Amino acid sequence: MLFLTSAKAATVRAALDHWAGQGLLAPDEAARLSATITVQTVDWRRLSRYAFWAAVACLIVSLGALAEDSRVMALLVRLFTFGPAQRFLGFALAAGAFFAYGVYRHRARPQTAFRNEAILFLGVVATAASLVNLGLWLDSGKGRDDLLFLLASLIYGAIALGLRSVLVWVFTLIALACWMVAFTGIVSGWENYYLGLNWPLRFVLFSAAIVALAVPMARGARLAAFSRPTLSLGLLYLFLSLWLLSIFGNYGDLEEWRTVSQLGMIPWSVLFAAVAVAAIWIGVRRDDGMLRGYGLIFLGLNIYTRFFEVFWTSLHKGIFFALLGVSLWLLGTRAEKLWTLGRGR
User: Fold this and answer.
1) What pLDDT digit, counting tens, does each position of 211-260 carry?
2) Which parts pass through the membrane (predicted)?
3) Segment 298-306 long-range contacts (CB within 8 Å, at least 24 positions apart)
4) What values do phi and psi take at 39, rounded to 5?
5) pTM for the structure as a whole
């Protein structure tokens, strides 16, 4: 018996009918296969995923709420007086326990994938807490938080590759981005520029490296599962950075930025549009919905950002919002037609 949502069941049955009509599948066999499909009125798989994430979020919120309760904290302080070293050790042991239990469940019960990932996420949180306390314990006044983020990315990366956990791999890339911010900030004395690059331009180069990393990962059998998440997060970093770059350019000082004419931002806007169009083109050629989606969304964001920049002060607000409303109406109409066409197919 095959359990599918109503939309997927309709698609599979339509395919079976088509193959039977083309003579590629015997009618009796098509009817037999169609009878094995059971429509699920509730997507239990998705519900399971969301329920586990909601449970983990509630646990974290509850810990935060307890930390805000002065009476609870006073009681804990009376019972236990821990320094950063003890807290580091306690959280490190907790992280090790979560990861060990996650490894056990990963091997013993691989079918409970969402529960296993939720347990690993608790290990990720405990690891972050342990590293924060490690920083407090070893703080020499130099503020080398970049080393903690680098250590976090190495720990998460090793666990993600060992367990083939996409969730932990995502946190590896997030920790790596935090390391880049901390490292370039520290070595530049937290100035606006590092090697002549402001923050958005630094992130453009960093995210381009993440996107480039996803390409060879897709060719390796062990790393193939991490390729798409790496590409997705890299594209998100890249397009958000390009969007900020199209607004502020390579300027780190707001006073300097205010003296620059709008024409000075055109090259960055063109670069933003060119990367979005390239993503759409590659997505169309490779039938990659993720690339097409990123390209279309951020190309539209680029156009509407330029619309606000150029016409916000020059047009009457009534005309401005009328044009904005008409354009959004046309966009919604076109999207609705494409959705209806796709649904019909």
Assistant:
1) 999 888 888 777 888 889 899 999 999 999 999 999 888 887 777 777 77
2) 50-67, 87-104, 116-135, 147-163, 168-187, 199-218, 230-251, 263-282, 294-312, 318-335
3) 298/239, 298/242, 298/243, 298/272, 299/273, 300/331, 301/243, 302/243, 302/246, 302/269, 302/272, 302/273, 302/276, 305/243, 305/246, 305/247, 306/269
4) -80, 125
5) 0.72
